[in-house]
Amino acid sequence: MSQLTVGKDVLSYCTKCKLNLGHTIVAMKDVKHIAKVKCNTCGTIQSFKDASVSSKQNKTRTKKTTMKPSKIISVSDLWMEKMSSTKKKSTPYAMDQKFVQGDILDHLKFGPGIVEKVVDDKIEVIFRHEIKTLVHNKKM
Ligand SMILES: [Zn+2]
User: Fold this and answer.
1) Ligand 1 centre from 135 Cα, in Å?
2) C-alpha dihedral over 30, 69, 3, 65, to 10 degrees?
């Protein structure tokens, strides 16, 4: 249910408060791993320490359901993964523009997307919230 993204709250061990406290994610290592968190109590930004792993006393031990790797990859996970693994510059989307697989485009309505598949005059593009089929290479 909970998806790890910047701005979400997680339970992490605060090295300053010396307690497992609610922290806000400020940076992600990748889609499943948190890099940096900010303590909601003292405001310190530090590396994420999984409270359920580093704590020696097992009171407030949350069953590891939050960290369970899920097999279901959402569109936004896929989008984030693809966008972070490319160094290409984005091109503004236009119907007469020709795109190839892996191209990054900027759509006026849907925002940045990555070309997943090219089929003749159509391209399948992964956007942040949905996968869309668009027209490209159209003779005007
Ligand atoms: Zn703290």
Assistant:
1) 51
2) -140
CB 100 within 8 A of CB 137: no
95-109 pLDDT, tens digit per residue, is 999 999 999 999 999
Pull the structure tokens for residue 37: 């968190």
Domain range summary for the chain, segments of one domain joined by +: 9-67, 75-135
Give the pTM.
0.49
14 Cα: distance to centroid of ligand 1 (angstroms): 5
Residues lining ion ligand 1 (Cβ < 5 A) are 14, 16-17, 39, 41-42
pLDDT of amino acid 66: 57
**Cα separations in angstroms, 35 against 5, 8, 24, 103, 131:** 11, 13, 11, 28, 28
Alpha-carbon dihedral of residues 96, 102, 105, 111, nearest 10 degrees?
130
Those residues with Cβ within 8 angstroms of residue 83's Cβ, 6 or more apart along the chain or in another chain: 104, 112, 114
Take residue 126 and report the two structure tokens written for it: 């992964």
